[in-house]
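I have been asked to look over a protein record a colleague put together. The record follows directly below this note.
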Amino acid sequence: MALSRYQRFTRAEWARLRADTPLTLTEDDLTHLRGLNERVSLDEVAEIYLPLSRLLNLHIGASQALHGSTAAFLNTKMAKPPFVIGLAGSVAVGKSTTARILRTLLARWPNHPHVDLVATDGFLHPRRVLEERGILQRKGFPESYDLRALIRFLSEVKAGRAELAVPVYSHLTYDIEPDHFQAIRQPDVLIVEGLNILQAGDRAARPSRHLSFASDFFDFTIYVDAEIRAIRQWYVERFFALRKTAFQDPLSYFHRYADLTDEEAETVATRIWREINEPNLLENILPTRDRANLILEKGLDHTVQLVRLRKL
């Protein structure tokens, strides 16, 4: 067997690493954390996410101890910066649900109760800008983000800025909400969830520009993975679900899809996947997978079947 940077765990092997970590979520909690068309169960939380929260808690504790040691060495009382977790993966793979579950579990550990979650959707350029640049159909590709604003935000988080304002993205209007911001006030832990956050780019090719990348600011990174055929199926299923819910709102950017027949909806969803989401996955997202500290591999039924943890 070829050598690998990762140690592989079956679901059963990983579940045993939960040790005595208590299950602090209820079925009612999980109902509010699930994304549309997600099927995460309490068993999945106990077997996959509790061991992961335990691992992250150990990393956070080690980071806090190192900060304390450095402060003692410097004889200063520096405020400790947030422990920043990057979470990446394709559209429709379930990374937002994963992020919400982890946020809730991590906030219930006593040594880091303040946990915030930021989606990089808020750093997309406004729809007007994307239309002016002729790249509205490439929303989600690296060029559709205000990368300077994202880097500035992460840099200020790590610098200990007392309060930061993150733009809020509306999936209803398919645009940044004007004058609406999420306040980030020095959390113990910050989870940053997005499509392309593990990219590092090519410093050699651009030595004078973008010398920092989002991935430079993460203390731990997670990639939610699945076979492309499974993600495509989940994307189409989610489109069908949205057609009966969010698309029905007259204010929805996708209201024009609300009255499609099943056959028409499948044709449209498959075309959008094939022309936009799959190329972005293959060109930009999937190539960053092996930069993650931990990879969650999902099966066709949405459950995590394999966990890969990078060796130290």
User: Anything to note?
Assistant: Residues 197 and 214 are 6 Å apart (CA to CA). The domain at 6-310 is CATH 3.40.50.300 (Rossmann fold).
